[in-house]
Amino acid sequence: MRIFRKLFSRNKLIDPIDFGAVRVDMHSHLIPGIDDGSKNLHESYELVKRLKSLGYRKLITTPHIMSDFYRNDSDTIRRGADQLREYLRNKGVEIEIEAAAEYFCDEHFDRLIEKKDLLSFGNNYVLFELPFMQAPTSLKTTLFNLQMAGYKPILAHPERYGYWHTRFDEYQSFIDKDVLLQVNLNSFSGAYGPQVRKTAEKMVDQGMISLLGTDCHNHNHIDMMELSRRMPYVHRLVTSGVLLNGKL
Ligand SMILES: [Fe+2]
After folding, report:
1. CA 211 – CA 22 distance, rounded (Å)
2. What is the distance in A from the centroid of ligand 1 to the CA of 128?
3. What is the DSSP letter of 16?
4. Going by DSSP bridges, is the β-strand pair 96-99/58-61 parallel, antiparallel, or unpaired?
5. Is the pLDDT of residue 7 over 70?
6. Which residues does 140 contact at the CB level (< 8 Å), separation at least 6?
7. How confident is the model at residue 166 (pLDDT cuts 50, 70, 90)?
8. DSSP class of 62
């Protein structure tokens, strides 16, 4: 909380944005007990209620699928989403919940691409993430196979991969290959450190971002969103008209 207050006092803030302008969040971990996100249905309900009160009308939630840590599959995620929808209905919370996944780029992902067993959303979009230490050597092949299978890749939080902070040509090469970039909302308030924030801002300056995601795992992330929604760069991005969120 002290860090939160420090970040709050250090920033030049403007009026908080209503996320009704974004309409749809497409990156979160709200299905309980299957990854490092929400721990139980009650927590999911509270998180969804808070996201709704910030203005979101629809949540596309994206549990991790990572062969070594989160062995989820399409069925566990669909079942979890059904349970969550029912719980919310019983509690009287009206909001559209859709489920997809955040695929970690590993051999398991390659096998799922081969079987065309991926949870996509919108225009057949597939959200994927990379390791934080270094990019996989097979990345280009994986993306080629993904696109050949008819999917449209979205790279989750490119600003968080430190190995590319001084390599904007790498980011540009994704865009050139029709891979969309999704920035995390809380990157703009410094939640992941100053370098991540600087990179996110530079990406907005260069018009590289197509999607904005909360990547919400817990209440702390929503607390931080209270600060992020007052950041000038978030306003710029949301009002620029480039975001595809509203079409999902
Ligand atoms: Fe995530």
Report:
1. 9
2. 9
3. P
4. parallel
5. no
6. none
7. very high
8. -
Other beta carbons within 10 Å of 205:
11
For residue 9, report the distance from its CA to the centre of ligand 1, in Å: 27
Question: What distances in angstroms separate CA 169 from CA 142, 173, 176, 206, one per listed residue?
Answer: 19, 6, 10, 12
The percentage of residues in the chain with a pLDDT greater than 70, rounded to a whole number, is 96
Measure 26 CA to ligand 1 centroid, in angstroms.
10
pLDDT mean across residues, the chain: 95
CB 77 within 8 A of CB 119: yes
Burial of 6 (0-12, 13-18, 19+ CB in 10 A): exposed
Kindly report the number of other CB atoms within 10 A of residue 199's CB atom. 23
35 CA from centroid of ligand 1 (Å): 10
Q: In what order do the strands lie in the sheet with 58-61?
A: 24-25, 58-61, 96-99
Give the pLDDT of residue 222. 97
Please enumerate in sequence order all residues whose Cβ is within 8 A of that of 197, keeping only pairs 6 or more positions apart, or say none: 159, 187, 188, 189, 190
Phi/psi of residue 223, each to 5°?
A: -55, -45
CA distance 126 to 124: 7
Q: Flag whether pLDDT at 218 surpasses 90.
A: yes
> Where are the chain's structural domains?
2-239
Among residues 143, 152, 157, the alpha carbon closest in space to that of 196 is found at: 157
CA 71 to CA 157: how far, in whole Å?
Answer: 22
Using the mean position of ligand 1's atoms as its centre, give its distance from the Cα of residue 213 in Å: 9
Q: How many Å lie between the centroid of ligand 1 and the Cα of residue 102?
A: 6
Length of the chain: 248
CATH class for domain 2-239? alpha beta
